[in-house]
Design brief:
The protein has about 270 residues and is of the alpha+beta class. It has five helices and 16 strands. The radius of gyration is 20 Å and the shape is globular.
Length: about 270
């Protein structure tokens, strides 16, 4: 059976369109069938061209097909998740077709809000969205008991992949993607002793906002989901789905941290 590919790309970025056009021609020359995004379940692999935001959006469709390899090519600015450089794009596609690559498995979270279920790559955020002068209050529980009441601008529940995104900006740690864990990071906590806590992935997290008369916003991977009230039931557990990123065999995660985030660099 021949290879079948779905390409997701940011059509608003000239560089992404340029890379898409070049790879589309190359793949057709190699006998790869190109499918539309809504045909993802028929594909054998997928390509994402853009920044990390493009990958976050595309992941919602990609994970509909279990264990599908994803080649994530950077046409944005930072490109921490879309770490394949433009100059490497054709080579990594050749490597994939020649079965010469490694798979980097990224764990996802599963959010259930009332009767709706979402898969989350980076983080779930419950916050005021800076639109309310009042502090919000959120109770976090697991199936093993109460964790904490977070009072401040909100709370972030991140995956290890999301630990290098909003959670990091809010003071959270970098957690290797090889671990399955929850990272709970407060946003501007009223109590300065309230800090990030890392929980085991086998726990089930429940969250409840304590007031309905202020702005309590629920967001996943940067997208607004709904305004929360005290009646909303939020449950978060580790998903059984993975995002399978295709990488060169010699790729070093810690080198990417240094290159993209300047991690460990001498600041003086």
């Amino acid at each position: 059976m021949g290879e079948k590919c779905v390409i997701f790309y940011n059509s608003n970025k000239a560089k992404a369109v340029e890379i898409y056009t070049e790879l589309k021609k190359f793949l057709k020359e190699r006998g790869v069938t190109l499918l539309l995004p809504n045909e993802i379940e028929e594909a054998t692999f997928s390509i994402v061209i853009g920044g990390d935001g493009t990958l976050l959006r595309a992941s919602k469709e990609i994970i509909k097909k279990d264990n599908i390899p994803v080649i994530a090519i950077n046409a944005g600015s930072l490109g921490f998740l879309t770490e394949i450089k433009e100059i490497e794009a054709r080579k990594i596609c050749e490597n994939y077709l020649n079965k010469d690559y490694e798979i980097c498995k990224r764990g996802l979270l599963e959010l259930k809000i009332n009767n709706d279920v979402y898969n989350v790559l980076n983080e779930i955020v419950i916050s005021t969205g800076r639109l309310d002068k009042k502090l919000m209050s959120v109770d976090i529980f697991t199936d093993r008991g109460k964790v904490n009441t977070y009072i401040g601008d909100g709370v972030i529940i991140a995956s290890p992949t999301g630990s290098t995104a909003y959670s990091l900006s809010a003071g959270g740690p970098i957690v290797s993607y090889r671990l399955d864990a929850f990272i709970i990071t407060p946003i501007s906590p009223h109590n300065l002793s309230t800090r990030t806590i890392i929980l085991s992935s086998d726990e089930i997290i429940k969250a409840k906002v304590n007031y309905s008369d202020i702005n309590n916003f629920l967001m996943i991977d940067g997208d607004f989901i709904k305004k929360l009230t005290m009646e909303d039931d939020i449950e978060i557990k580790y998903s059984n789905k993975k995002l399978n990123l295709v990488l060169p065999k010699d790729r070093n995660y810690y080198s990417v941290l240094k290159e993209k985030l300047k991690w460990g660099d001498n600041l003086f």
